[in-house]
Amino acid sequence: MKWKINTAWIPVLALVLAVGVIIGRASAPDASDRGGFLERGEVPRARVGSSSPEVSSVRRVTGRSVFDGVKAEDFESIAREAADSPDEIGSEAMLRVLVSEWAKKDALAAIAFAKGLKRDDLICDALLQMAQSDVEGALNWVASHGGAPGQERGFLMAVYQGMAKKDPVGAIARLEQLPVGAQRDELLSLTVNQWAKQDIKGAFSWLETAELTPQFASIYQQVMGNYIEQDPDSAAAVISEMASCESKLSFAPQVACKLAEKDVGSALEWVHELDGEERKYALMGVLDRWAGGADGKGALEYVLQNSDEPGYGSLLETVAFKIAQNDPDELAGVMASMGEPEQLVAAQHLASVYSMSSPSRCRDWLETLEAGAVRDRAVERALGTFRSSNISLAFDLSESISSESLRNAQVREVMSVWMAVDAQAAENALADSSVLSGAEKGSLLTELHNNLKPNDFVIPAGSSF
Question: Where are the domains positioned within the chain?
């Protein structure tokens, strides 16, 4: 029997649909998060900044949840309607919110519903909520329903994240009772990271008395990563005082990026106080944000005027890549004013973007370039796209390369692709070529035929599906 939705809850569902995409995944760690909690940058001991409020899993309207008026027994019919919806995106957003909110009122029912759907991610959402009000119940459920090792790992991570939201000190105390090993390390890392998100001061206070174990550095990285996100100005002052070390090298670009997002000028002033590799990578972070913003041309001008900066080539690559992605015509317009080394970098990035976005625009732009190394490298980069998307254009462009050795190599690559899909058309194009001699054409065809490997693309008949 198909479940019918109670019309009294239509306003609730409408609101969930409106905000679900934004908030639907806020209540529990994503699958990707559950496997990568140890992959943050490195960190120094820092001055403690102010804590930032945790974002609620459901937006509040005048201090009340939109689900406050929904009875626990009514959630199942709403959730089943959402699960049956043909709108996959809307359904997913609704389910994540509904199960999370349902678990606040009847966690075991919400978990049973998610289990019936065979949705471990929804079970994790429910366990996260359950752990904030009934820790023992959540841990007991995992102990009796954990399933395979991978499932139990994900469930435990959800429980400890929920515990950390409610009582991080208590969560860590529990973890310290677990056997030493990889599981405890992972759960401790997750718990402290969650703690740092909602109370950076408390997390730093714990670190000051924590035992110096092999895991300490990675946990410290996470806490400092949160500190940089929350208070980059204070973090910048801390990092400026650090002696040159691996931690400083890791933190400097993180801080530089955050400072540049607010004010490029201030970020540059801070970076200029750094030395060596720290300065190089921090400046790369500033330029990445600068070039990706509204004043990308300003970032390019800065790089070109500071060619004596350490790592100049990498800085130029960073800026050229960003501008080519955001405003390729802007970069194309100033390319002629650059030196040849800079033109080579800009041309290759432009060729990548133009060949992907507009073959005709790419061909027109290539025709504006003078014959030589810059155009050759741009054509070579464009061929990487056209060999699979426009083979006849790829052949024409490969013939236009000035360098004989590069031209022959690219013609051979294009022909090897073309021969595999349309040998007759490839041979006709080669026969009409005016840049290769008869002997070169014959030698190339012989080589291609000898190396040609047959493909058999078998597609099942309709009756076999």
Answer: 1-50+57-230
**Residue whose token pair is 């201090």:** 63
Q: Which has the closest alpha carbon to 55: 24, 98, 31?
A: 24
CB-based burial of residue 151 (10 Å sphere; 0-12 exposed, 13-18 middle, 19+ buried)?
A: middle
**Long-range interactions of 133-141: CB distance < 8 A, separation 24+:** 133/104, 133/107, 133/166, 134/107, 135/159, 135/163, 135/170, 135/174, 137/107, 137/108, 138/107, 138/162, 141/108, 141/111
Q: Which three-class secondary structure state does DSSP give residue 381?
A: helix
Q: What is the pTM of this model?
A: 0.74
Distance CA 161, CA 29 (A): 8
**Count of alpha carbons within 13 angstroms of residue 145, beta-carbon side:** 17
Q: How far is CA 410 from the centre of its chain?
A: 33
What's the pLDDT band for 463 if we cut at 50, 70, 90?
low
How many whole angstroms separate alpha carbon 369 and alpha carbon 35? 48
- Name all contacts of 108-113 with Cβ < 8 Å and 24+ positions apart: 108/137, 108/141, 109/72, 109/75, 109/76, 110/75, 111/141, 113/76, 113/79
- Please write the tens of the pLDDT for every residue from 27-47: 344 444 433 322 333 333 333
Residue 65 main-chain phi, psi, to 5 deg: -75, 145
Q: Which residues contact 186 (CB under 8 A, 6 or more apart)?
A: 37, 38, 153, 157
Encoded amino acid at 189, one letter: S
